[in-house]
Amino acid sequence: MGSAPAQIPTSFGHELRACLRCRLVKTYDQFRDAGCENCPFFKMEEDHERIVEVTTPNFNGIISVMDPSRSWAARWLRIGKFAPGCYTLAVSEPLPEEMQHLCQEERVQYVLPKRM
Q1: pLDDT, tens digit, for every residue of 39-77?
Q2: Which end of the chain is less packed: N or C, by CB atoms within 10 Å?
Q3: 48 φ/ψ angles, rounded to the nearest 5 degrees
Q4: What is the CATH classification number for the domain harbouring 21?
Q5: Does residue 5 form part of some domain?
Q6: Domain total for the chain?
Q7: Cα-Cα end-to-end distance for the chain
């Protein structure tokens, strides 16, 4: 996780989705083609149904981060160790329990979203 930049969304319309774990924002097609740079264990590029499970079109705000490790905003949003890219400020729905268990198995942190 971290050093190679994530794909930048090719469109900023209604087709944007955010990863429910890391909050990376890309289009559905980008998740289908390359998966999530921060969450490769979801294997979205192999299982296209998983994209709908682990991403959401419902999110608030977008921040672009070029150097997450040096950005106070990235650290405040808890994305300081993720790949440079576009992230949402907040998602309003949790990752499905099955995927939360997968995160535990992979020993990666998952923080439930705050109530909005």
Answers
A1: 999 999 999 999 999 999 999 999 999 999 899 999 998
A2: C
A3: -65, -25
A4: 3.30.40.210
A5: no
A6: 1
A7: 28
